Amino acid sequence: METVTIKDIAKALNISTSTVSRALRGSYEINAETKRLVMEYAEKVHYSPNPIALSLKENKSRAIGVIVPEIANHFFSQAINSIEEVANSRGYHVVIFQSHESYEREVTNIQHIIARKVDGLLISLSGQTSDVSHLHEIQRKKLPLVLFDRISHKIDAHKVVADNFDGAFKATEHLILSGRKRIAHITSPSLLSITQERLAGYRAALEKHGFQYDESLVKYCGFSAEEPKRIIEELIESQNPDAIFTTSDRLALDCFSALREKNILMPNDVAFIGFTNLKVAHLLEPSLSTVVQPAFEIGQAAAELLLDSIERKTTNIEQFRTIKIPTEMIVRKSSES
Protein backbone atom coordinates (compact mmCIF):
# COMPACT_ATOMS: atom_id res chain seq x y z
CA MET A 1 0.00 0.00 0.00
CA GLU A 2 1.41 3.41 -0.99
CA THR A 3 1.88 6.05 1.69
CA VAL A 4 -0.69 8.84 1.51
CA THR A 5 0.84 12.33 1.39
CA ILE A 6 -0.43 15.86 1.97
CA LYS A 7 -0.35 16.33 -1.82
CA ASP A 8 -2.73 13.35 -2.25
CA ILE A 9 -5.19 14.85 0.25
CA ALA A 10 -4.96 18.27 -1.41
CA LYS A 11 -5.64 16.79 -4.87
CA ALA A 12 -8.61 14.74 -3.64
CA LEU A 13 -10.22 17.75 -1.91
CA ASN A 14 -9.20 20.25 -4.62
CA ILE A 15 -7.42 22.56 -2.17
CA SER A 16 -3.81 23.65 -1.77
CA THR A 17 -1.19 21.60 0.07
CA SER A 18 -0.53 24.53 2.41
CA THR A 19 -4.21 24.57 3.37
CA VAL A 20 -4.11 20.84 4.13
CA SER A 21 -0.93 21.26 6.16
CA ARG A 22 -2.36 24.09 8.25
CA ALA A 23 -5.67 22.24 8.73
CA LEU A 24 -3.87 19.14 10.01
CA ARG A 25 -1.97 21.32 12.50
CA GLY A 26 -5.22 22.90 13.70
CA SER A 27 -4.23 26.37 12.55
CA TYR A 28 -6.62 29.22 13.41
CA GLU A 29 -6.16 30.46 9.81
CA ILE A 30 -8.30 27.61 8.47
CA ASN A 31 -12.07 27.62 8.94
CA ALA A 32 -13.81 24.86 10.88
CA GLU A 33 -15.53 23.28 7.87
CA THR A 34 -12.27 22.93 5.92
CA LYS A 35 -10.56 21.45 8.98
CA ARG A 36 -13.39 18.94 9.31
CA LEU A 37 -13.18 17.88 5.67
CA VAL A 38 -9.40 17.49 5.81
CA MET A 39 -9.41 15.56 9.10
CA GLU A 40 -12.19 13.22 7.99
CA TYR A 41 -10.48 12.47 4.68
CA ALA A 42 -7.08 12.02 6.38
CA GLU A 43 -8.63 9.50 8.76
CA LYS A 44 -10.42 7.73 5.90
CA VAL A 45 -7.20 7.18 3.94
CA HIS A 46 -5.14 6.42 7.10
CA TYR A 47 -2.84 9.41 6.63
CA SER A 48 -0.05 9.81 9.18
CA PRO A 49 2.52 12.61 9.11
CA ASN A 50 6.11 11.86 8.14
CA PRO A 51 8.21 13.06 11.12
CA ILE A 52 11.44 13.25 9.08
CA ALA A 53 9.87 15.36 6.34
CA LEU A 54 8.23 17.62 8.90
CA SER A 55 11.47 18.10 10.83
CA LEU A 56 13.34 19.13 7.67
CA LYS A 57 10.62 21.56 6.66
CA GLU A 58 10.12 23.15 10.09
CA ASN A 59 13.68 22.89 11.45
CA LYS A 60 12.35 20.79 14.33
CA SER A 61 13.09 17.25 15.48
CA ARG A 62 9.34 16.52 15.90
CA ALA A 63 10.36 14.66 19.07
CA ILE A 64 9.77 15.30 22.77
CA GLY A 65 11.78 13.90 25.66
CA VAL A 66 10.18 12.24 28.68
CA ILE A 67 12.05 11.48 31.92
CA VAL A 68 10.35 9.37 34.60
CA PRO A 69 11.73 7.64 37.70
CA GLU A 70 10.68 4.16 36.53
CA ILE A 71 8.65 2.89 33.59
CA ALA A 72 7.69 -0.26 35.53
CA ASN A 73 5.71 1.92 37.95
CA HIS A 74 2.04 1.53 37.03
CA PHE A 75 1.36 5.24 37.28
CA PHE A 76 4.21 6.20 34.94
CA SER A 77 3.46 3.46 32.41
CA GLN A 78 -0.13 4.71 32.16
CA ALA A 79 1.00 8.33 31.90
CA ILE A 80 3.49 7.45 29.14
CA ASN A 81 0.73 5.72 27.16
CA SER A 82 -1.31 8.92 27.08
CA ILE A 83 1.75 11.09 26.37
CA GLU A 84 2.56 8.94 23.33
CA GLU A 85 -1.06 9.01 22.16
CA VAL A 86 -1.21 12.81 22.26
CA ALA A 87 2.25 13.24 20.72
CA ASN A 88 1.62 10.81 17.86
CA SER A 89 -1.71 12.44 17.04
CA ARG A 90 0.11 15.74 16.57
CA GLY A 91 2.98 14.37 14.51
CA TYR A 92 5.62 13.97 17.25
CA HIS A 93 7.43 10.93 18.55
CA VAL A 94 8.57 10.34 22.13
CA VAL A 95 12.04 9.60 23.52
CA ILE A 96 11.83 8.05 27.00
CA PHE A 97 14.47 7.99 29.73
CA GLN A 98 14.43 6.60 33.29
CA SER A 99 16.19 8.26 36.23
CA HIS A 100 15.78 5.21 38.50
CA GLU A 101 15.32 7.67 41.39
CA SER A 102 18.86 9.04 40.87
CA TYR A 103 19.57 12.78 40.66
CA GLU A 104 22.85 12.16 38.83
CA ARG A 105 21.14 9.96 36.28
CA GLU A 106 18.40 12.54 35.83
CA VAL A 107 21.02 15.19 35.01
CA THR A 108 22.73 12.82 32.57
CA ASN A 109 19.39 12.05 30.92
CA ILE A 110 18.81 15.75 30.35
CA GLN A 111 22.24 16.11 28.77
CA HIS A 112 21.38 13.28 26.36
CA ILE A 113 18.01 14.86 25.60
CA ILE A 114 19.60 18.21 24.77
CA ALA A 115 22.12 16.43 22.53
CA ARG A 116 19.24 14.76 20.67
CA LYS A 117 17.79 18.21 19.96
CA VAL A 118 14.27 17.34 21.04
CA ASP A 119 11.66 20.08 20.82
CA GLY A 120 10.63 19.95 24.50
CA LEU A 121 10.84 18.00 27.76
CA LEU A 122 8.37 16.36 30.13
CA ILE A 123 9.82 15.34 33.49
CA SER A 124 8.76 13.77 36.77
CA LEU A 125 11.53 14.30 39.30
CA SER A 126 13.59 11.57 40.95
CA GLY A 127 13.42 10.84 44.67
CA GLN A 128 16.83 12.46 45.15
CA THR A 129 16.18 15.73 43.29
CA SER A 130 16.19 18.94 45.32
CA ASP A 131 18.58 21.00 43.20
CA VAL A 132 16.81 22.00 39.98
CA SER A 133 19.62 23.99 38.36
CA HIS A 134 19.60 21.47 35.48
CA LEU A 135 15.99 22.47 34.78
CA HIS A 136 16.88 26.16 34.85
CA GLU A 137 19.54 25.33 32.28
CA ILE A 138 16.85 23.77 30.08
CA GLN A 139 14.90 27.02 30.25
CA ARG A 140 17.98 29.12 29.51
CA LYS A 141 18.29 27.13 26.29
CA LYS A 142 14.68 28.11 25.47
CA LEU A 143 13.59 24.47 25.50
CA PRO A 144 9.90 24.16 26.50
CA LEU A 145 9.51 22.30 29.80
CA VAL A 146 6.58 20.73 31.67
CA LEU A 147 6.84 19.05 35.09
CA PHE A 148 4.27 16.40 35.98
CA ASP A 149 3.34 14.41 39.09
CA ARG A 150 6.58 15.02 41.02
CA ILE A 151 7.30 18.72 40.66
CA SER A 152 9.43 21.44 42.24
CA HIS A 153 8.28 24.83 43.49
CA LYS A 154 11.80 26.18 42.92
CA ILE A 155 11.16 26.67 39.21
CA ASP A 156 8.51 28.55 37.23
CA ALA A 157 7.17 26.23 34.54
CA HIS A 158 4.02 24.46 33.41
CA LYS A 159 3.06 21.76 35.93
CA VAL A 160 0.45 18.98 35.96
CA VAL A 161 -0.34 17.16 39.20
CA ALA A 162 -2.94 15.03 40.93
CA ASP A 163 -4.86 16.55 43.82
CA ASN A 164 -2.64 14.75 46.31
CA PHE A 165 -3.86 16.71 49.33
CA ASP A 166 -7.51 15.87 48.72
CA GLY A 167 -6.78 12.21 47.96
CA ALA A 168 -4.82 11.77 51.20
CA PHE A 169 -7.42 13.70 53.18
CA LYS A 170 -10.24 11.46 51.94
CA ALA A 171 -8.27 8.26 52.57
CA THR A 172 -7.43 9.29 56.14
CA GLU A 173 -10.95 10.51 56.84
CA HIS A 174 -12.35 7.22 55.52
CA LEU A 175 -10.20 5.34 58.04
CA ILE A 176 -11.25 7.67 60.87
CA LEU A 177 -14.94 7.29 60.03
CA SER A 178 -14.41 3.52 59.98
CA GLY A 179 -13.52 3.77 63.68
CA ARG A 180 -9.72 3.70 63.45
CA LYS A 181 -7.79 5.58 66.13
CA ARG A 182 -4.08 5.01 65.36
CA ILE A 183 -3.53 5.58 61.66
CA ALA A 184 0.02 5.05 60.44
CA HIS A 185 1.22 6.85 57.32
CA ILE A 186 3.97 5.14 55.28
CA THR A 187 5.21 7.47 52.60
CA SER A 188 7.97 8.27 50.10
CA PRO A 189 11.16 10.32 50.70
CA SER A 190 10.42 13.72 52.24
CA LEU A 191 12.02 15.64 49.34
CA LEU A 192 9.20 14.74 46.94
CA SER A 193 6.34 17.17 46.34
CA ILE A 194 3.85 14.31 46.40
CA THR A 195 5.11 13.25 49.85
CA GLN A 196 4.62 16.74 51.28
CA GLU A 197 1.16 17.16 49.74
CA ARG A 198 -0.11 13.75 50.89
CA LEU A 199 1.29 14.24 54.40
CA ALA A 200 -0.52 17.59 54.56
CA GLY A 201 -3.80 15.91 53.59
CA TYR A 202 -3.28 13.19 56.21
CA ARG A 203 -2.59 15.79 58.92
CA ALA A 204 -5.58 17.92 57.91
CA ALA A 205 -7.97 14.97 58.23
CA LEU A 206 -6.59 14.12 61.68
CA GLU A 207 -6.99 17.74 62.77
CA LYS A 208 -10.54 17.99 61.45
CA HIS A 209 -11.61 15.01 63.55
CA GLY A 210 -9.74 16.03 66.71
CA PHE A 211 -6.83 13.60 66.46
CA GLN A 212 -3.38 14.71 67.56
CA TYR A 213 -0.64 14.34 64.95
CA ASP A 214 1.87 11.70 66.10
CA GLU A 215 5.23 11.72 64.32
CA SER A 216 5.97 8.17 65.47
CA LEU A 217 3.15 6.96 63.20
CA VAL A 218 4.69 8.57 60.09
CA LYS A 219 7.44 6.62 58.32
CA TYR A 220 9.43 7.80 55.31
CA CYS A 221 10.55 4.96 53.08
CA GLY A 222 13.31 4.86 50.47
CA PHE A 223 13.38 2.66 47.41
CA SER A 224 15.02 -0.57 48.62
CA ALA A 225 12.90 -3.72 48.54
CA GLU A 226 13.64 -4.57 52.18
CA GLU A 227 12.72 -1.24 53.79
CA PRO A 228 8.89 -1.53 53.73
CA LYS A 229 9.02 -4.90 55.49
CA ARG A 230 11.30 -3.49 58.20
CA ILE A 231 9.02 -0.48 58.69
CA ILE A 232 5.92 -2.66 59.01
CA GLU A 233 7.66 -4.80 61.64
CA GLU A 234 8.73 -1.72 63.61
CA LEU A 235 5.27 -0.16 63.46
CA ILE A 236 3.44 -3.28 64.54
CA GLU A 237 5.83 -3.97 67.43
CA SER A 238 6.22 -0.43 68.80
CA GLN A 239 3.20 1.64 67.72
CA ASN A 240 0.34 -0.86 67.42
CA PRO A 241 -1.53 0.94 64.59
CA ASP A 242 -5.08 -0.10 63.71
CA ALA A 243 -4.83 1.37 60.19
CA ILE A 244 -2.13 2.03 57.60
CA PHE A 245 -2.22 4.48 54.71
CA THR A 246 0.56 4.11 52.11
CA THR A 247 1.35 6.47 49.25
CA SER A 248 2.73 4.61 46.21
CA ASP A 249 2.29 1.46 44.12
CA ARG A 250 5.47 -0.12 45.47
CA LEU A 251 4.74 0.75 49.10
CA ALA A 252 1.18 -0.55 48.81
CA LEU A 253 2.28 -3.95 47.49
CA ASP A 254 5.33 -4.35 49.74
CA CYS A 255 3.50 -3.30 52.92
CA PHE A 256 0.46 -5.39 52.03
CA SER A 257 2.73 -8.40 51.53
CA ALA A 258 4.54 -7.75 54.83
CA LEU A 259 1.25 -7.67 56.73
CA ARG A 260 0.20 -10.95 55.13
CA GLU A 261 3.54 -12.55 56.06
CA LYS A 262 3.01 -11.57 59.71
CA ASN A 263 -0.52 -13.08 59.60
CA ILE A 264 -2.08 -9.71 60.37
CA LEU A 265 -5.68 -9.74 59.23
CA MET A 266 -7.00 -6.87 57.10
CA PRO A 267 -9.21 -5.09 57.97
CA ASN A 268 -9.89 -6.87 61.30
CA ASP A 269 -6.48 -6.20 62.87
CA VAL A 270 -5.29 -3.36 60.63
CA ALA A 271 -7.28 -1.49 58.00
CA PHE A 272 -5.20 -0.76 54.90
CA ILE A 273 -5.45 1.72 52.02
CA GLY A 274 -2.95 2.65 49.31
CA PHE A 275 -2.37 5.63 47.02
CA THR A 276 -1.88 3.50 43.95
CA ASN A 277 -2.77 2.77 40.32
CA LEU A 278 -2.34 -1.01 40.64
CA LYS A 279 -4.58 -2.71 38.11
CA VAL A 280 -4.70 -5.86 40.26
CA ALA A 281 -5.84 -4.10 43.46
CA HIS A 282 -9.28 -5.71 43.22
CA LEU A 283 -7.74 -9.20 42.82
CA LEU A 284 -5.74 -9.14 46.06
CA GLU A 285 -7.04 -10.92 49.14
CA PRO A 286 -8.50 -8.93 50.73
CA SER A 287 -9.17 -6.58 47.82
CA LEU A 288 -7.18 -3.38 48.26
CA SER A 289 -8.76 0.00 48.94
CA THR A 290 -7.02 2.66 46.88
CA VAL A 291 -6.77 6.33 46.04
CA VAL A 292 -6.35 6.26 42.27
CA GLN A 293 -4.33 8.95 40.50
CA PRO A 294 -5.65 10.06 37.10
CA ALA A 295 -2.47 8.88 35.34
CA PHE A 296 -3.86 8.96 31.81
CA GLU A 297 -5.33 12.43 32.28
CA ILE A 298 -2.12 13.76 33.84
CA GLY A 299 -0.02 12.47 30.95
CA GLN A 300 -2.50 13.80 28.43
CA ALA A 301 -2.65 17.28 29.96
CA ALA A 302 1.15 17.44 30.33
CA ALA A 303 1.72 16.44 26.70
CA GLU A 304 -0.83 18.94 25.42
CA LEU A 305 0.72 21.74 27.49
CA LEU A 306 4.18 20.90 26.19
CA LEU A 307 3.16 20.66 22.54
CA ASP A 308 1.23 23.93 22.78
CA SER A 309 4.34 25.54 24.27
CA ILE A 310 6.51 24.16 21.48
CA GLU A 311 4.20 25.39 18.74
CA ARG A 312 3.48 28.77 20.32
CA LYS A 313 6.91 29.25 21.94
CA THR A 314 5.29 30.26 25.26
CA THR A 315 7.99 31.11 27.81
CA ASN A 316 6.37 34.03 29.63
CA ILE A 317 6.19 33.34 33.39
CA GLU A 318 2.74 34.94 33.60
CA GLN A 319 1.46 32.32 31.16
CA PHE A 320 2.71 29.26 33.06
CA ARG A 321 -0.11 27.05 34.32
CA THR A 322 -0.46 24.49 37.11
CA ILE A 323 -3.18 21.95 36.35
CA LYS A 324 -4.50 19.92 39.29
CA ILE A 325 -6.57 16.83 38.44
CA PRO A 326 -8.88 15.14 41.00
CA THR A 327 -8.14 11.68 42.42
CA GLU A 328 -10.69 8.93 43.06
CA MET A 329 -11.01 6.84 46.21
CA ILE A 330 -12.17 3.23 45.78
CA VAL A 331 -13.14 1.47 49.02
CA ARG A 332 -12.66 -2.32 49.05
CA LYS A 333 -12.42 -5.02 51.71
CA SER A 334 -8.98 -4.08 53.10
CA SER A 335 -10.36 -0.98 54.81
CA GLU A 336 -14.04 -1.69 55.30
CA SER A 337 -15.32 -1.27 58.86
Describe this structure in words.
Residues 4-58 form the HTH lacI-type domain. Keywords: DNA-binding, Transcription, Transcription regulation. With 337 residues, the protein is an alpha/beta fold. The chain has helices spanning 6-13, 17-24, 32-44, 51-58, 74-89, 103-115, 133-140, 164-177, 193-208, 227-238, 249-261, 295-312, and strands at 63-68, 93-98, 121-123, 145-148, 158-162, 183-187, 218-220, 243-246, 271-275, 289-292, 322-325, 328-330. A 6-stranded parallel β-sheet has the order 2-1-3-4-5-11, with helices on both faces. Helix 5 packs parallel to helix 12. The mean pLDDT is 90.
Keywords summarizing the entry:
six-stranded parallel sheet; six-stranded mixed sheet; Rossmann fold; 15% strand; alpha/beta; 337 residues; single chain; 3 domains; 44% helix; 12 strands
Q: Which CATH architecture of the largest domain is right?
A: 3-Layer(aba) Sandwich
Mean pLDDT: 90
What do we call the CATH homologous superfamily of the largest domain?
Response regulator
CATH topology-level name of the largest domain: Rossmann fold
Poorly predicted runs: none
Largest sheet: 6 strands, parallel
- Gross morphology is elongated
Helix content: 40-55%
Roughly what fraction of the amino acids lie in strands?
Answer: 15-25%
Q: What's the CATH first level of the largest domain?
A: Alpha Beta
> What is the H/E order?
HHHHEHEHEHEEHEHEHEHEEHEE
- Class by SSE composition: alpha/beta
Biggest sheet strand order reads 2-1-3-4-5-11
Report the radius of gyration as a whole number of Å: 23 Å
Beta strand count: 12
Number of domains: 3
Number of helices: 12
Distance separating the two termini: 61 Å
